[in-house]
Amino acid sequence: MNNGLWSTVMDNAVFVLESVAIAAALVAVAYAAEKYVQKKNHDTERILTTRKIATIGVFSAIAAVLMLFEFPLPFAPSFYELDFSEIPALIGTFAFGPVVGVMIEFCKVVLKLFIKGTSTAFVGDLANFVIGCSFILPASIIYMFKKTKKNAILACAAGTLCMTVFGSAFNAVYLLPAFSKLYGMPLDTIVGMGTAINGSITSVTTLVIFAVAPMNLLKGGSVSLITMMTYKMLSPILKTSAIKPKKNPHPQAEGK
Question: Which helix (H) or strand (E) element contains residue 193?
Answer without folding.
Answer: helix 187-195
